[in-house]
Specification:
binds inosinic acid; three-stranded antiparallel β-sheet; globular; alpha/beta; seven-stranded mixed β-sheet; 5 helices
Amino acid sequence: MGADLAEVLIPPDRLQGRIAELAAQIDADYADRELLLVGVLKGAVMVMADLARAMRLPVQMDWMAVSSYGSGTKSSGVVRILKDLDCDITDRHVLVVEDIVDSGLTLSWLVRNLQSRGPASLQVCALLRKPSAARVDIDVAYTGFDIGDAFVIGYGLDYAERYRNLPFIGTLAPHVYGGGPDGTETTTLAAGAAAAEEPVPRGASGNTL
Ligand code: IMP
């Protein structure tokens, strides 16, 4: 893996520190309510597991899997449910846990879909947010870090299903995506990789995209 990695953007201790802050904020906000965490597979597996363990409130957990990226690396806005929730969220307090908001198309579709099921409340926690997310009108109550446009991997996030188990968020070395046989993802990823920026921790609540 060493040679495939361009840069460690967010090391494990910064991830865990920020997740502990988010967990404390969520604990305080939901102190008198029963909370259901809804993780979005597969990318949110790590943040969901660490966030839930950092919280003091007893929570329930459920999972959804959606597909948004057809063959390229940009959301089409056409989202398909691959795995739906096991539970009924009518009158429940729901917090959607996402790995990253990029175009925001997946999340806005998901929020609309879940909202139509009649939850008592519905909020979103996203570990990472890219600049393009600012162009979409989604309210993300809890954001971990604002990052640049670089395509990131690790801590649940993949490139072609690899690198999810890295304990940090990193960027890929150009040779990993630069010489792909079909060439379909080269432009997007190369542009992103060049734009790696220092991640900025966000205030724990009230960020409107
Ligand atoms: P959006 O609809 O453009 O916001 O895309 C959201 C989904 O795209 C995320 O849940 C990720 O699965 C995936 N995604 C977006 N950016 C990245 C990235 O930099 N690395 C890995 N996956 C990403």
